[in-house]
From TrEMBL:
Record's function text: Catalyzes the reduction of 1-pyrroline-5-carboxylate (PCA) to L-proline.
GO cellular component: cytoplasm
GO biological process: one example: L-proline biosynthetic process
Key word Cytoplasm present: yes
All residue ranges annotated as the Pyrroline-5-carboxylate reductase catalytic N-terminal domain in the record: 8-83
Enzyme Commission designation: 1.5.1.2
Entry binding sites for NADP(+): 68-71
Protein name: Pyrroline-5-carboxylate reductase
Molecular function, one GO term: pyrroline-5-carboxylate reductase activity
Amino acid sequence: MASSHPSILLVGSGKMGGAMLDGWLASKTPPKIFVMDRHKANDDARFSVVKTAEEIPSSFTPDIIVLAVKPAAAETAITSLVKALGSRASSCAILSVLAGKTCLSLAEMAKNAGQAMPVLRAMPNTPTSVGAGMSGFFASPEASKTQAQICHDLMLAIGEVVTVDKEEDLATVTGISGSGPAYVFLLAELLEKAAVKYGLPADSARRLARATIYGAGRMLQTLPEDAETLRKNVTSPNGTTAAALSVLMEENAWPKNVPEAVQAARKRSDELAS
């Protein structure tokens, strides 16, 4: 990381915040972490927990405030933090992982609360919890190079990072990698159910589906060929795979539905911004 031991205030430790926390704690150089979450138990010596902003010790000044609450709770969280941190807030930057909420809207919330704060955004996914995340990242011009590097490295510590030049591109990142694990989990779920339907035991169906998806993912990560080439390589003419793909690649099947699914996620991301 740009700073070997940055201080992080993680606001919210639900599904995404919790996944990021697990990933950071498992990394080689975990940051100093305070978690602000009224529902989080303080049972791990590797980080500290406060229930509210007022409980943040006066001796703790975060380099980065990672905002991982529900979008509707963003303004309340930022307002309470600015009030509780006081002058310390002037040296903090906000790293938001909220879908839809723009850097400008979050910066205005901080300004209205009495403190100008630079805002950066990341769109991670839940595989961050096992160090295999994929994040889109955008740094607003108001953030310093050091702040941008710390935030980038925080995300890099829990997976891969793609930096986008335009903030609006994060909506597409949301539809591809942010929501993408759920698409893969759905495929695993459907393969398992199909295997059981055609007579395999549930435990065998589970192993077959999951190992197949894991193996295909390994090939995509390690081999130089693109996805289309890998698909063609495993598809013998008039063979079993070709028969299955003839169903999945019908005009109204995957070629139509997958882009529509991504667009639905993009649209919802834009709606959450308002």
